[in-house]
Amino acid sequence: MEHREAMTLTEVSRRLSDAVTGAGINDVWITAETSDLRSSGGHCYMELIQKHPDTGATLARVRANIWASRYATLNRRFMHTTGSPLASGIRVMLCVTASYHPVYGMSLTVDDIDAEYTLGDLLRRRREIIRRLTEEGVIDMNRQLEWPVPAQRIAVVSADGAAGYGDFMHQLYLNGRRLRFHTELFPAVLQGEKAPSSIIEALDRIAMRSDEFDGVVIIRGGGATSDLASFDDYDLAANVAQFPLPVIVGVGHERDVTVLDYVANMRVKTPTAAAEWLIGQAMEQIQLLGQLGSELYRLVSGRISGDARQLAYIEGQLAPLARAAHERARQRLDGIAGQIPQLAANILDRSRQQLDSLGRLLDILSPQSTLRRGYTITRSGGRTLTSVKQLASGQRLTTSFADGEAEYMIINLSIK
Prior knowledge:
By secondary structure, the chain is of the alpha/beta class. It has 9 helices and 14 strands.
């Protein structure tokens, strides 16, 4: 077997260390995304990764640390600039020195941080989400929804047992005017990486019963500002923007702004402020009803007063009007009474003339008058004959004339 020259692992590690040292990676500024960041013994440990901009696949990964002698100062400066402490999942610009350890491998030691880069990246990320929602035409959908009047049925998205939820409920139900509200809690995680998906799940449950609520309140009490980074999430913002009920968002402090603040119907600074807004809306309706009641009272009072004056006037005119009507009626009766005898005589005369005419007509139309004009009436067995066909031989007949009757029998009938 051929003898080969071999290096020990220690020698390889030494050469790698020399190569890293000789590469001149000292006080070099790099950009990366933080991952698995944790602190221990005053030191900060993390992994720095670079992802493919389109696929999100990890292209590079390396361990990094900030020693305790620098960590407190750098973290404090970073928080002052960005409003958030160093955390996982954010893009950073770091000044690093590379080293290689025989046991722990290569790592980067962080000497400085450009917090302005991270702040700009957060703003860029937020602007990109807002731009995307704007291009999709959904950014104003929830803000354009009208709140029912009054809004008293509220779905609450909050962490179960959270202090912010307790503050909201205390303020809402112990309001000074004893206004009644109905609330139902839909528990969700309100901080960390799981917050967006957890809130979306709660909103989906509310949407299935949307006809039971007037609006939604998403609230979170005080806490680390870094937790708000999870609210700059496209999927969550798109869900809130297109939600069928108006949404109030109160997940930060007055100085904090997230994408949800741009898409929600209403943004408030605290859970208590959310309750105060709902109470204020109800109070406005009470005040409006009071104003309408006052206006209605004024109008009705004015109408009653006017009607009372008109009634008094009519009452004052009633007696003279009655006397005048009575006098006119009496005058008409007097006139009619004077005309009654003449009217009665006229009626009697007309009646007498009508009777005379009827008498003459009856006389003309009577059978006796017909007989006097030369006509006769022939009967057989008391029945008046009207046709020659009613005659027969041997038939006994009676013929009436104006001056008498003749009875006879037909011996030989000859009809022509």
